[in-house]
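Bumping my old thread because nobody answered last time. Still need a sequence for this structure:
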C-alpha cells in the first residue's frame, strides 16, 4: 500500500498501547491519517490491497480481543483541528480531538457549555458514536451536524435531525465519523472551572483512576444505577483472572495487571447473571466488545 504521503504507519503494533484496559494482541498495521481527505485515500489503498480495517478512537469504552489482528487499525489522533466561528457561536471539530482539549479550547474563548465533558477520556468521534455524556448532559445536546464517510464511501454531512440517537447510543456506528459542528455558549468561565475542579475531585474519590479501565461498564437501568445494583450484591473486589470489579466503584472493571479480554468478558457475564438472578434486571453493556471477524 502507498501510505507514506497520506499517513503515519506503525507496523506490527502492540494494541495494549492503544486502549485503556491495556489488553489485546498485535495489529498488522496502525495507520494515522494526516487529514480528513487522507482518510478517504487510506481507505482506498486498503480496499485496493483487499485488506480489512477497524477504526479505533482513544481506546476507551472498548474491549479489544486477545487475538492478533491481521489487518489495519486506523487511528484519528492526527485529526485534531478546531475552528471557532465567533460570529455564529459555532465550532467545528475533527474526530481525533479529545473532549478535554475541546473543552479547554472553548474555555479560553469564554465558551462554557462543554465543561461537563472535561474528564471524559475519549475522542470526539467515539463520543458521537456512543452519545457520550455526564452530569445530565450529552454530546448531541449541542450538535449541529456531523461529517462522515457513509457506507457508500461518500464524504457527506448529516444534520442532527438526520441521525438516530438516544441514551449512550446513535446510528453513527454505520458511518466513519470525521468531525462535527456544535453550537457553543458564552458564560462565566471561572464558575465553569470551579465546577470542573469539583467534578475532578469527585471522580478521584469515586472512580478507579489509578488502574487500567474503560469507564462505566453498564448503562444505568431506568430509575436505578448499575453500580448500586452490583455493589448491593457484594461484588466489589470480585475477580476472574486478572479482571476485577473495582473496589472504588462497582460499575467499573479494572485490569489488575494481567487481565485478558476473555477475563473481562467472563466477568461481565457473571455480573449480568447475578444482577438478573437477584433483581430480574438485564444490565445493558455500555462498553463495546470488538471482534476482528
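Sorry it took so long. Here it is:
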Amino acid at each position: 500500500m502507498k501510505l507514506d504521503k497520506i499517513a503515519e504507519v506503525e507496523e506490527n503494533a502492540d494494541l495494549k498501547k492503544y486502549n485503556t484496559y491495556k489488553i489485546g494482541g498485535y495489529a498488522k498495521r496502525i495507520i494515522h491519517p494526516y487529514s480528513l481527505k487522507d482518510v478517504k485515500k487510506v481507505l482506498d489503498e486498503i480496499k485496493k490491497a483487499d485488506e480489512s480495517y477497524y477504526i479505533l478512537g482513544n481506546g476507551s469504552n472498548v474491549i479489544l480481543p486477545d487475538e492478533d489482528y491481521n489487518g489495519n487499525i486506523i487511528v484519528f489522533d492526527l485529526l485534531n483541528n478546531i475552528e471557532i466561528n465567533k460570529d455564529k457561536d459555532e465550532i467545528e471539530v475533527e474526530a481525533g480531538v479529545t473532549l478535554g482539549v475541546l473543552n479547554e479550547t472553548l474555555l479560553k474563548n469564554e465558551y462554557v457549555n462543554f465543561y461537563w465533558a472535561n474528564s471524559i477520556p475519549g475522542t470526539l468521534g467515539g463520543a458521537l458514536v456512543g452519545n457520550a455524556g455526564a452530569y445530565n448532559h450529552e454530546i448531541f445536546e449541542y450538535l449541529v451536524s456531523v461529517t462522515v464517510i457513509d457506507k457508500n464511501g461518500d464524504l457527506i454531512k448529516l444534520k442532527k435531525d438526520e441521525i438516530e440517537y438516544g441514551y449512550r447510543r446513535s446510528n453513527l456506528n454505520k458511518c466513519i465519523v470525521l468531525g462535527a459542528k456544535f453550537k457553543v455558549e458564552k458564560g462565566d468561565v471561572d464558575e465553569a472551572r470551579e465546577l470542573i475542579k469539583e467534578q475532578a475531585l469527585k471522580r478521584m474519590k469515586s472512580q478507579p483512576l489509578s488502574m487500567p479501565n474503560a469507564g462505566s461498564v453498564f448503562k444505568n437501568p431506568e430509575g436505578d444505577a448499575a453500580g448500586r445494583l452490583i455493589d448491593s450484591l457484594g461484588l466489589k473486589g470480585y475477580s476472574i483472572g486478572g479482571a476485577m470489579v473495582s473496589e472504588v466503584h462497582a460499575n467499573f472493571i479494572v485490569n489488575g495487571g494481567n487481565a485478558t479480554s476473555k477475563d473481562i468478558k467472563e466477568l461481565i457475564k457473571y455480573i449480568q447473571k447475578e444482577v438478573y438472578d437477584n433483581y430480574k434486571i438485564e444490565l445493558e453493556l455500555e462498553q463495546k466488545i470488538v471482534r476482528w471477524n
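Residues 210 and 232 are 24 Å apart (CA to CA). Let me know if any region looks off to you.
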